[in-house]
Write a structure and sequence with these properties.
CATH topology: Rossmann fold
Distance between the termini: 23 Å
Protein name: Nucleoside-diphosphate sugar epimerase
CATH superfamily: NAD(P)-binding Rossmann-like Domain
Order of helices and strands: EHEEEHHEHEEHEHEH
CATH architecture: 3-Layer(aba) Sandwich
Number of helices: 7
Structural class: alpha/beta
Number of strands: 9
Low-confidence stretches: none
Mean pLDDT: 88
Radius of gyration: 17 Å
Strand content: 15-25%
Largest sheet: 7 strands, parallel
Strand order of the largest sheet: 3-2-1-4-5-6-9
Helix content: 25-40%
Shape: globular
Protein backbone atom coordinates (compact mmCIF):
# COMPACT_ATOMS: atom_id res chain seq x y z
CA UNK A 1 0.00 0.00 0.00
CA UNK A 2 1.46 3.34 -1.12
CA UNK A 3 0.01 6.46 0.51
CA UNK A 4 0.40 10.14 -0.33
CA UNK A 5 -0.35 12.68 2.39
CA UNK A 6 -0.95 16.23 1.17
CA UNK A 7 -1.06 19.46 3.16
CA UNK A 8 -2.27 22.57 1.32
CA UNK A 9 -4.45 20.99 -1.36
CA UNK A 10 -6.54 24.15 -1.73
CA UNK A 11 -3.57 26.28 -2.80
CA UNK A 12 -2.20 27.02 -6.27
CA UNK A 13 0.35 24.19 -6.38
CA UNK A 14 -1.48 21.92 -3.97
CA UNK A 15 -4.65 21.82 -6.07
CA UNK A 16 -2.64 20.85 -9.16
CA UNK A 17 -0.76 18.23 -7.20
CA UNK A 18 -3.99 16.77 -5.85
CA UNK A 19 -5.30 16.24 -9.38
CA UNK A 20 -2.06 14.52 -10.41
CA UNK A 21 -2.16 12.27 -7.38
CA UNK A 22 -5.75 11.26 -8.10
CA UNK A 23 -4.71 10.27 -11.63
CA UNK A 24 -1.73 8.28 -10.36
CA UNK A 25 -2.66 4.67 -9.75
CA UNK A 26 0.65 3.98 -8.00
CA UNK A 27 -0.87 5.59 -4.89
CA UNK A 28 -3.55 3.42 -3.38
CA UNK A 29 -4.57 6.17 -0.95
CA UNK A 30 -4.36 9.97 -0.94
CA UNK A 31 -5.03 11.76 2.33
CA UNK A 32 -5.52 15.52 2.31
CA UNK A 33 -5.34 17.65 5.45
CA UNK A 34 -6.71 21.18 5.56
CA UNK A 35 -8.77 23.65 7.56
CA UNK A 36 -11.74 22.94 5.31
CA UNK A 37 -12.97 19.78 3.64
CA UNK A 38 -12.27 19.52 -0.08
CA UNK A 39 -15.01 19.65 -2.70
CA UNK A 40 -13.30 16.83 -4.62
CA UNK A 41 -14.47 13.25 -4.23
CA UNK A 42 -12.59 10.14 -5.32
CA UNK A 43 -12.54 6.51 -4.18
CA UNK A 44 -8.88 6.82 -3.18
CA UNK A 45 -9.18 10.26 -1.55
CA UNK A 46 -9.68 10.88 2.16
CA UNK A 47 -10.21 14.53 3.04
CA UNK A 48 -9.56 15.39 6.69
CA UNK A 49 -10.20 18.73 8.40
CA UNK A 50 -7.62 19.61 11.01
CA UNK A 51 -6.61 22.39 13.35
CA UNK A 52 -3.00 23.21 12.53
CA UNK A 53 -2.46 23.99 16.19
CA UNK A 54 -2.99 20.28 16.82
CA UNK A 55 -1.09 18.60 14.00
CA UNK A 56 -0.52 15.50 16.07
CA UNK A 57 -3.95 14.36 14.86
CA UNK A 58 -2.45 13.56 11.47
CA UNK A 59 0.41 11.36 12.68
CA UNK A 60 -1.41 8.05 12.30
CA UNK A 61 -1.53 8.60 8.51
CA UNK A 62 2.19 9.37 8.10
CA UNK A 63 4.00 6.01 8.48
CA UNK A 64 5.58 4.86 5.18
CA UNK A 65 3.88 7.75 3.37
CA UNK A 66 5.11 10.29 0.84
CA UNK A 67 4.35 13.60 2.56
CA UNK A 68 3.78 16.65 0.34
CA UNK A 69 3.71 20.05 2.06
CA UNK A 70 2.31 22.86 -0.11
CA UNK A 71 1.44 25.27 2.69
CA UNK A 72 2.11 28.94 2.06
CA UNK A 73 0.57 32.38 2.41
CA UNK A 74 1.47 36.07 2.30
CA UNK A 75 1.85 38.55 5.13
CA UNK A 76 -1.17 40.44 3.77
CA UNK A 77 -3.35 37.34 3.75
CA UNK A 78 -2.04 36.07 7.10
CA UNK A 79 -2.56 39.46 8.73
CA UNK A 80 0.79 39.74 10.51
CA UNK A 81 4.39 38.58 10.40
CA UNK A 82 3.71 36.23 13.28
CA UNK A 83 0.78 34.60 11.50
CA UNK A 84 2.82 34.32 8.30
CA UNK A 85 5.63 32.56 10.17
CA UNK A 86 3.16 30.06 11.58
CA UNK A 87 1.98 29.00 8.12
CA UNK A 88 5.30 29.16 6.30
CA UNK A 89 7.68 27.91 8.99
CA UNK A 90 6.12 26.54 12.16
CA UNK A 91 3.50 24.27 10.57
CA UNK A 92 5.70 22.79 7.81
CA UNK A 93 8.50 22.13 10.31
CA UNK A 94 6.11 20.42 12.72
CA UNK A 95 4.70 18.28 9.91
CA UNK A 96 8.24 17.27 9.00
CA UNK A 97 9.03 16.37 12.61
CA UNK A 98 5.89 14.26 12.85
CA UNK A 99 6.73 12.63 9.52
CA UNK A 100 10.19 11.70 10.75
CA UNK A 101 8.86 10.32 14.04
CA UNK A 102 6.18 8.28 12.26
CA UNK A 103 8.56 6.79 9.69
CA UNK A 104 7.39 8.56 6.53
CA UNK A 105 9.23 7.57 3.35
CA UNK A 106 9.98 11.11 2.15
CA UNK A 107 9.08 14.74 2.73
CA UNK A 108 8.56 17.15 -0.16
CA UNK A 109 8.06 20.87 0.49
CA UNK A 110 7.79 24.19 -1.36
CA UNK A 111 9.81 27.18 -0.20
CA UNK A 112 10.76 29.99 -2.61
CA UNK A 113 13.50 31.33 -4.81
CA UNK A 114 15.77 33.50 -2.67
CA UNK A 115 15.22 31.49 0.50
CA UNK A 116 18.05 32.53 2.83
CA UNK A 117 18.08 32.44 6.61
CA UNK A 118 20.33 35.52 6.66
CA UNK A 119 18.29 37.55 4.16
CA UNK A 120 17.36 41.14 4.99
CA UNK A 121 13.91 40.41 3.54
CA UNK A 122 11.53 38.85 6.04
CA UNK A 123 9.79 36.59 3.51
CA UNK A 124 13.04 35.12 2.19
CA UNK A 125 14.46 34.83 5.70
CA UNK A 126 11.50 32.78 6.96
CA UNK A 127 11.74 30.49 3.95
CA UNK A 128 15.48 30.11 4.52
CA UNK A 129 15.00 29.36 8.21
CA UNK A 130 12.52 26.64 7.28
CA UNK A 131 15.03 25.07 4.89
CA UNK A 132 17.79 25.23 7.50
CA UNK A 133 15.62 23.67 10.21
CA UNK A 134 14.35 20.93 7.91
CA UNK A 135 17.90 19.95 7.00
CA UNK A 136 18.72 19.47 10.68
CA UNK A 137 16.06 16.77 11.05
CA UNK A 138 17.92 14.09 9.08
CA UNK A 139 14.81 13.02 7.20
CA UNK A 140 15.41 9.90 5.09
CA UNK A 141 14.49 11.90 1.97
CA UNK A 142 14.00 15.67 1.88
CA UNK A 143 13.03 17.43 -1.36
CA UNK A 144 12.91 21.25 -1.31
CA UNK A 145 11.38 23.09 -4.27
CA UNK A 146 12.26 26.77 -4.76
CA UNK A 147 9.97 28.22 -7.44
CA UNK A 148 10.25 31.79 -8.64
CA UNK A 149 7.02 33.63 -9.56
CA UNK A 150 4.23 31.06 -9.71
CA UNK A 151 1.86 31.27 -12.66
CA UNK A 152 -1.66 29.88 -12.55
CA UNK A 153 -5.24 30.71 -11.62
CA UNK A 154 -5.32 31.75 -7.99
CA UNK A 155 -8.47 31.80 -5.90
CA UNK A 156 -7.22 34.95 -4.21
CA UNK A 157 -6.18 38.10 -6.09
CA UNK A 158 -2.60 39.25 -5.59
CA UNK A 159 -2.09 42.56 -7.39
CA UNK A 160 1.73 42.48 -7.61
CA UNK A 161 1.80 38.88 -8.80
CA UNK A 162 -0.98 39.50 -11.33
CA UNK A 163 1.00 42.39 -12.79
CA UNK A 164 4.19 40.32 -12.91
CA UNK A 165 2.34 37.43 -14.56
CA UNK A 166 1.18 39.75 -17.36
CA UNK A 167 4.79 40.80 -17.95
CA UNK A 168 6.09 37.23 -17.87
CA UNK A 169 5.67 36.47 -21.62
CA UNK A 170 7.77 39.54 -22.44
CA UNK A 171 10.48 39.03 -19.83
CA UNK A 172 10.94 35.26 -19.92
CA UNK A 173 12.83 35.11 -23.26
CA UNK A 174 15.33 37.63 -21.86
CA UNK A 175 16.11 35.50 -18.81
CA UNK A 176 18.82 33.22 -20.16
CA UNK A 177 22.06 31.74 -18.86
CA UNK A 178 22.52 32.38 -15.13
CA UNK A 179 19.23 34.31 -15.09
CA UNK A 180 17.12 31.29 -16.10
CA UNK A 181 16.38 30.58 -12.46
CA UNK A 182 14.37 33.84 -12.35
CA UNK A 183 11.95 32.68 -15.03
CA UNK A 184 8.35 32.37 -13.81
CA UNK A 185 7.15 28.79 -13.51
CA UNK A 186 3.70 27.29 -13.88
CA UNK A 187 2.24 25.97 -10.62
CA UNK A 188 1.25 22.82 -12.51
CA UNK A 189 4.91 22.29 -13.41
CA UNK A 190 5.93 22.54 -9.75
CA UNK A 191 3.33 19.88 -8.97
CA UNK A 192 4.66 17.65 -11.76
CA UNK A 193 8.23 18.07 -10.53
CA UNK A 194 7.22 17.20 -6.98
CA UNK A 195 5.44 14.04 -8.05
CA UNK A 196 8.29 13.07 -10.36
CA UNK A 197 10.78 13.44 -7.51
CA UNK A 198 8.53 11.35 -5.26
CA UNK A 199 8.43 8.58 -7.86
CA UNK A 200 12.22 8.51 -8.09
CA UNK A 201 12.34 8.12 -4.29
CA UNK A 202 15.93 9.31 -4.01
CA UNK A 203 17.18 9.43 -0.42
CA UNK A 204 19.10 12.34 1.10
CA UNK A 205 18.57 16.08 0.74
CA UNK A 206 17.74 17.72 -2.59
CA UNK A 207 17.07 21.34 -3.52
CA UNK A 208 15.40 22.22 -6.82
CA UNK A 209 15.71 25.84 -8.03
CA UNK A 210 13.08 27.20 -10.36
CA UNK A 211 14.91 26.41 -13.60
CA UNK A 212 15.49 22.81 -12.46
CA UNK A 213 11.80 22.53 -11.59
CA UNK A 214 10.89 23.51 -15.16
CA UNK A 215 13.35 20.97 -16.59
CA UNK A 216 12.06 18.20 -14.33
CA UNK A 217 8.47 18.97 -15.33
CA UNK A 218 9.35 18.99 -19.05
CA UNK A 219 11.14 15.64 -18.79
CA UNK A 220 8.63 14.09 -16.40
CA UNK A 221 6.49 11.14 -17.37
CA UNK A 222 3.78 12.51 -15.08
CA UNK A 223 0.73 13.41 -17.14
CA UNK A 224 -1.40 16.51 -16.57
Amino acid sequence: MKRAVLFGASGLVGSSLLQLLLQDDSYTEIVSFGRRALDAEHPRLTSKTISFSNLGECQEWLPKSDVFCCLGTTIKTAGSREAFRLVDHTYPLEIARLSLAAGARQFLVITAMGADSSSAFFYNRVKGELEHDLKQLSLPALHIFRPSLLLGDRREHRLAESFAARLAPLLTPLLIGPFRTYRPVQAADVAKAMLDAAHKATGGQHVYPSDKIALLAAASKVEN
